[in-house]
Design a protein that fits this description.
Low-confidence stretches of chain B: 3-8
Distance between the termini of chain B: 31 Å
Number of strands of chain A: 8
Shape of chain B: globular
Radius of gyration of chain B: 20 Å
Helix content of chain A: under 10%
Helix content of chain B: 25-40%
Oligomer: heterodimer
Order of helices and strands of chain A: HHEEEEEEEE
Number of strands of chain B: 11
Largest interface: A-B, 35 and 41 residues
Chain lengths: 149, 397
């Protein structure tokens, strides 16, 4: 899912928040996928457990053969926080962060900004996502209320 | 794999023989290295030993990438050299059972005969090094790796953010309220008023607590600990040296288990923490029970951590910590379970876990002055939160 140009402009403020990940042999494909607009996780070919963060090994059966699976929305909002403090000079203070769970993908969770909420987000509600750039160019999911359409 | 207690275990073959603490304050003029020397020399003297008796030295987290300016304290070998120590055992590292990694390792080393008397220190000068409001980890760390990397990459640049994920979930599942949480900060402030070393001592009202500014909801200003400069040191001695010691406290049991994934955001149930694994392991080593504990000193870098510790340690059931602390009576001096009797890190200052250990030792030795709890035979200490925690049960010798 790609955001529109208009969305990009209004959410550019988030781009300064976060720490770029160190890319490793295990995580390179994950970050390449987010840059091309998809959220992809490994699934163990032997026992079908979804493995995230990527390790190249299944922690349940120790299988080493993984296949890449695209994560489709919706996820479920497991928890959230409304950040109200600026964590440095000239830094934005007001934004929502969510912890989103994907039960259909072995319950893996992602941390990301919540956008498009007018009131307080509801734990347990469904969320979709778009992939947006973070600091120094890597891409990560931003979550928003899920609409079936 | 569960460890079962055995009578021929070397587990209780070491004791904590000395305690020393430097001045603790906001922006002290002394360097962190000199504060460390103050704490270590005081601890050695307190044990009735001389520096030449010390043959072990350890600290956590040791040098390496600092999470926050002023977090790590002086280099182990600079400390060794300053004191002219001839060491048989030495360690400075950060990965292991939270803030007591260094202490547990020293207990094991002394038990196994790798050293006779080990000094273990923890020094921080976060207050002066940061020199103002707390900043995000992105001000320090330019590339995220390891267990916090996915939080940092996602935009959660302060532990306040990820601590909030946990407490928000606790509120959601159990109806725990912000007012209930407030009783921790209020009660600890009252305790701090009886501690001459505490940082914040003016009484805190519920109105002040509730109207303080939000940092990351549901946590607000008085839910977050206060950075300080200071150093704390203990001496760990092999049991066969006790005839040389002035005094000591017994280490009944320790816990630092890690039975779940080491990631805050992937922890299976965010109404529990690594606190639960540490506490379960600790209780499995002893016949003592939560009802035997006279005083509890548990981590409160963010106030909800203390609620999680109360549940993990079995002082109340899952989800019951909010009602347990409500009103403050039960956790006050004179209550069923006096908690964080020095003011915790919220009011006593952020010695990164070591203030809790120091206070537990003082309470067991009846040296806690105006805040002394009567007849303390058993003290529990729990430090850490999220996906990293360690605990220990101390008894009077």
């Amino acid at each position: 899912v790609r955001p529109t140009d208009e969305d990009d402009a209004s959410y550019a403020i988030y781009e300064s928040i976060g720490i770029p990940p160190r890319i490793t042999a295990e995580t390179r494909e994950f970050w390449q996928a987010t840059a091309s607009g998809t959220l992809r996780v490994d699934q163990c070919e032997s026992c079908r457990l979804h493995v995230f963060p990527p390790r190249g090994i299944c922690r349940r059966c120790h299988g080493r053969r993984m296949r890449a699976v695209t994560v489709d929305p919706p996820g479920i909002l497991y928890s959230f926080t409304e950040n109200r403090n600026a964590w440095g000079p000239d830094r934005p203070a007001d934004y929502l962060l969510g912890l989103v769970e994907f039960p259909q993908y072995s319950g893996i969770r992602f941390v990301g900004f919540l956008e498009g909420y007018s009131g307080e987000p509801e734990i347990g509600s469904l969320v979709g996502f778009v992939l947006r750039p973070g600091p120094v160019g890597f891409h990560r999911p931003h979550f928003r209320p899920w609409c079936e359409s | 794999v569960r460890i079962v207690s055995t009578s021929r275990s070397i587990r209780r073959s070491a004791v904590i023989s000395g305690l020393g603490q430097s001045k603790i304050g906001r922006r002290l003029t002394e360097s962190p290295y000199q504060l460390t020397m103050d704490a270590i020399l005081a601890a050695i003297d307190d044990a009735g030993l001389n520096p030449s008796d010390i043959d072990g030295l350890a600290t956590f987290p040791g040098p390496g990438e600092e999470l926050n300016p002023g977090f790590s304290g002086p280099d182990l070998y600079d400390v060794q050299d300053g004191l002219g120590l001839e060491l048989n055992w030495h360690l400075a590292t950060s990965q292991g059972p939270a803030q007591f990694l260094s202490l547990f390792s020293a207990l094991a080393a002394a038990s196994f005969g790798m050293c006779r008397h080990a000094v273990v220190y923890r020094t921080t000068n976060e207050a002066s090094a940061q020199g103002g409001p707390r900043r995000g980890h992105d001000e320090m760390i330019k590339q995220a790796a390891g267990p916090l990397a996915w939080l940092f990459a996602g935009g959660a640049v302060s532990p306040t953010n990820f601590a909030s994920f946990y407490f928000q979930r606790h509120m959601h599942e159990f109806g725990t309220s912000k007012e209930q949480l407030g009783w921790l900060a209020i009660t600890e402030r009252a305790h701090a008023a009886r501690n001459p070393d505490a940082i914040l001592t003016k009484p805190l009202s519920m109105d002040e607590y509730l109207s303080s500014r939000t940092i990351s909801s549901p946590l607000s200003l008085y839910d977050c600990d206060i950075t300080v400069d200071g150093s704390c040191a203990v001496v760990v001695s092999a049991r066969d040296t006790v005839s040389d010691l002035k005094q000591w406290v017994e280490v009944e049991a320790v816990g630092g288990a890690m039975r779940h994934r080491p990631l805050w955001e992937q922890w299976p149930d965010l109404t529990t923490m690594a606190t639960h694994d540490a506490a379960a392991q600790m209780w499995s080593m002893t016949s003592l029970k939560p009802a035997d504990v006279d005083v509890a000193q548990v981590y409160d870098a963010f106030s909800p951590f203390a609620l999680f510790w109360l549940e993990a340690l079995g002082f109340c059931g899952p989800g019951e910590s909010g009602p347990y602390v409500e009103g403050g009576g039960r956790i006050s001096l004179g209550g069923d379970l006096p908690l964080n009797t020095f003011g915790g890190q919220l009011s006593g200052g952020r010695m990164h876990g070591w203030g809790f250990l120091a206070e537990a030792i003082r309470q067991l030795r009846s040296e806690a002055g105006d805040r002394q709890v009567k007849n303390v035979d058993v003290a529990v200490v729990g430090v850490g939160g999220g996906a990293s925690a360690s605990s220990l049960l101390l008894t009077r010798s």
